[in-house]
Every structure is written in structure tokens, then in C-alpha cells.
Description:
With 137 residues, this protein is mainly α. Helix 4 packs antiparallel against helix 5. The chain is flat, with a radius of gyration of 17 Å.
Amino acid sequence: MGRIISKLKAINTALPGLLGGIAAYGVLLQAAGIFIVSDKPGYSIGLWVGIITASFMAIHMAVTLNSAVERDVKGAQVFATKQNIIRYFIVIIILSVLMLTRIGNPIAAFAGIMGLKISAYLQPMMRKLLGRGKKEN
């Protein structure tokens, strides 16, 4: 496990915390869904497809940022925009497959994908609560 965290930190130091937040969000939504939804298997499949998608999006964004900063300004903008379009196109494909096949709930998948946003917004607060934030004098 330590080797995986080291590899993720090598990509981006915030990445392990971001992925941990996405996973924690998924566990919370799964626990809440047990009591709320009637189609538990569809909800669970959709949710975890969304959580996995959010995790891959986070990794892809970190790799994209690393590649973009090595380019000139115009090249970085074009590269980052192209990668963003690819990332969101993949999300559309995943949600479409869920809608067409009815394997999992696409709304639950969307909620899982939003774990990326939730984790990103809460990460500074969580770092501070867990004592990993920089202490200011």
C-alpha cells in the first residue's frame, strides 16, 4: 500500500488525499443508499462505476497537469483543453452505457463522479483536521 501511495505522490502530492476522499465519499453514499433506494444492486453498481470513473479522472487530470506544465503557454492550453474534452467524453460514454444497458443507475453514477468535486473541495479542510496541513507561524 505504501508503494502505491508513493507512486501517486510522485504524480501529484495531493493525489492520494483526493483519491481517499473520493473513496470515503463513495462509502458514505453507499451507506446512505442502503436505506433510501429500492433498487439496491442498480444503485450500488452505478455508484461504484461513478466512483471508479472519478478516481480515473483525478489521475488523468494529475498526469495532464504534469504534461501541460512542460509545454509553452499556447501548447499547454491546447493540450489541457483536448484532455478535458476527452475526459468528459468518456464520462458521457459511461453514463450512456449505463442508461442503455440498465446495468447500473446512471444517477448514482453521476453522484459518484461528483465525488471528485466533493473531495477536491473538502481536501484542504481534511488535511487540516488530520494534522497534515502546513503549520503557519
